[in-house]
Amino acid sequence: MNRVQILNDVVANQVAAGEVIERPASVVKELVENSLDAGAGAIRVDFSRAGAAWIRVADDGCGMTRDDALLCLERHATSKIRHAADLAAVRSFGFRGEALPSIASVSRFRLATRQPSSVEGVEIQIDGGKITAVRACGEPAGTVIEVRSLFFNVPARRKFLRAETTEAVHIFQWMQTFSLAHPRVGFRVFREGKEILSTPSAADPAVRVREVLGDSIFRTLNWVDSGSDGGIRVHGFVGRAGEGRGDRSLQFVFVNGRPVRDATVQRALAEGFHRALPAGRHPIAVLFLEMDPGEVDCNVHPAKREVRFHQPLVVRDVVTSAVANALRVVPSASPVVPKMLPASFAFLPEEPRDLVEMAPPPVVQKAAPIPAVPQDDDSPAEAEPPSRSPDFQYRGPFGSRYALLESPGGLVILDVRAASERVWFETLLRGIRDGGVEAQQLLFPQVVEVAARDADWIARNEPLLVRSGIRLEPFGAKSWKVESLPAIVAGQSAADVLADIVQALRDAGGGARHRMIEDALARAVCSRVAVAGSPGREEDVRRVLGALFACALPYACPKGRPTLIEIGHGEMERKFGRSV
Questions:
Q1: Distance CA 468, CA 554 (A)
Q2: pLDDT-derived band of residue 235, with 50, 70 and 90 as boundaries?
Q3: What is the DSSP string of 300-336?
Q4: For 573, left (φ over 0), alpha (ψ -120 to 50), or beta?
Q5: What is the pLDDT of residue 9?
Q6: What CATH architecture is 9-199?
């Protein structure tokens, strides 16, 4: 007997099911994708026992003829592609022709379908991959698929299913994702007969985002739109600076309408936020990438969860720039997006002021006004600052760090330290990129001994250090003689300042882009700057606010913490149990 044999169709389909059908949520995903490909305007999903007992997906799409309904249950039977070249420009969600036969091979399966132009439809029943009945039926136009007793004939797979609550959450999350991706399609989801999701058709994607994520999250989002940049458009919503989550569960990325998890986009999103969120926090994002289907390969994962871009660096740069620019946009600039902060935050000073007036560093000569940051290929364009300062009423200090302010929208709490760090950070960054950071010559040069690996970091980044106001030269194998420091930290220990900078350079990583290394260095220096004023003095708070709102990104400190927060009148009313 030959050792090598061709698998029969039932076993082959069960093998394919192992790749495509991981859990009940995978069944829902595949069936909903087919409904979307059929042009459905309304899709209903029912399930019980977290999908292990019963899943039903009904749509009002184009339906199928009797012959097509039978053929779609064969492996590799598909209406989506005809030739190998079609794989280079896939526009549909399903295209391999494996999902339906795979699902039918591990369940008790029923398909009923009717085209709108046909008087009657067809019903097909399959038990563990074997057709048991084919008959006419009177179903409404569209397609209904029922999947019962999932994995009944593959008990090893069934025992690896998680608790019903966990499996149900996976189904719910997939339906949330589809709802976000397709606002013009109405979705309803029922668990054990109880409706758990209802999203009517909406022409405006902002309406769907509000429905799915909730009003409280939606109000914290900014609109993103890159325009058509090199044939790629990125649009959607991102959370505001200074706020994030401990995981990526509220990050949704769609490429030509297809939900994906892509490392390129995740890295670009993180880079766009790298000065706007604390370490370990992840932004909220609903991003839609639109591009020529020939520029993206959807055929790289059995469940189609991942894609590969033909030009990943271009995609990364477009996403990074779009996100970074969205964080700088004044809240009232887009009518689609909720206000990120009170309306009065829409007014900034006409020109950046001489920031050194806030807290003069211990230097002999006052620094010159800081010029604007020159743009380069790695730096997205800064938003134009609006015309005047926010109209806040100073109400006094709160502890030693915070100032209480009143805005037309409610109560604003300013973190004076965080605001000072943001001002100094952007001042330093402008100076570094212009080569104009003021240096303070040390009266007596300080010799600093460092570890061997740190000496290498310093040597490789010496030109950047010089532009930052730190002049130094080798003094032995592992020592450096520091001759000057940035004027804003003059008087501090050269060893401590250099240690902070080396750590920042190391954290940035050897493969970091030049702009990120500059940012890391500026963060390290500004963390040692004294607070620019007291929260107990109104004139100090006014100066800090004026300088803060001359910044490109005033809402977060260099480490991503908020510089200020607002508690709106409505939120206060709710806290006190009053109706809004």
A1: 22
A2: very high
A3: SSTTS---EESSHHHHHHHHHHHHHHHHHS-GGG-TT
A4: alpha
A5: 64
A6: 2-Layer Sandwich (3.30)
